[in-house]
Structures are given as C-alpha cells and as structure tokens.
Amino acid sequence: QVQLVESGGGSVQAGGSLRLSCAASGRTFSGYAMGWFRQAPGKEREFVARVSWNGGSTYYADSVKGRFTISRDNAKNTVYLQMNSLKPEDTAVYYCTGDGDRGGRYWGQGTQVTVSS
C-alpha cells in the first residue's frame, strides 16, 4: 500500500533549523505535487508548502515564506522541508502529503516539531 513516512522532527530553540524528510513507497509521486501541512495543539490543520511534480513551482503559507524551503528528489520519491529561523508558533505536528488521481491525497502519519523560546 502507499506509505508516506516523515522523519527529521524534534525539539529546537527559537532561531534554530530543522530539515524534515518524507519518503514515499507503494507508488511513485514523480508526476504529482507533494506538500506539507501542520497542526498545532487546539488548532485546525493548515497548509505549509507545496511543490509541483518537477520541483519547478513552489507555494508557501505567508507565515513561513522566506524561512521554509520545500524541495523534492523524484529519484528518491522523497520531499523535504528545510525550516530555518524557527519560531515557537511553528510548534506543530507536520504532515507530508502527496497528490493522487482524481483529486485524492495521501497523508503521512506526522512528525512532531517543537520550538522553545
């Protein structure tokens, strides 16, 4: 079956950096967009970033623009999220996504990111 497995989460102080990875298996996502969402405690899940099938186009939430960078390696069926200048408000569970056919979307299980002040 299709699996998206995130890694790279953890605890960091404000101003620090983390790099999240998401490795996909069970199908290739090379022809599909991939992205990241996050959910903070007590809040709804929100969009973070998205990358087109070939990495040529990227999109970001205003809250992370200029600090986060999404990229992908289709040879490895993997998407990344480089997070710099982290803030306490970036604390959340981060979820990887991969678009499917007919508007479907696959989700990873999530990885915790905690930023302390």
Oligomer: single chain
Radius of gyration: 13 Å
Identify low-pLDDT runs: none
Number of strands: 11
Q: What's the rounded overall pLDDT mean? A: 97
Q: Which range does the strand content fall in?
A: over 45%
Which structural class should the secondary elements be placed in? mainly beta
- Biggest β-sheet strands, sense, barrel: 7 strands, mixed
What's the tally of helices? 0
Keywords, separated by commas or semicolons:
11 strands, 0% helix, mainly beta, 117 residues, globular
Please give a structural write-up.
The strands form two sheets. Strands 2, 4, 5, 6, 9, 10 and 11 form a seven-stranded mixed beta sheet that branches. Strands 1-3-8-7 form a four-stranded antiparallel beta sheet, with no helix packed on it. It is globular and about 40 Å long. It contains no helices and eleven strands. The N and C termini lie far apart (40 Å). By secondary structure, the protein is mainly β.
Give a short overview:
Helices cover 0% and strands 52% of the residues. The protein has strands at residues 3-7, 10-13, 18-25, 34-39, 46-51, 58-60, 68-73, 78-83, 92-99, 105-107, 111-116. Strand 5 and strand 6 form a beta hairpin.
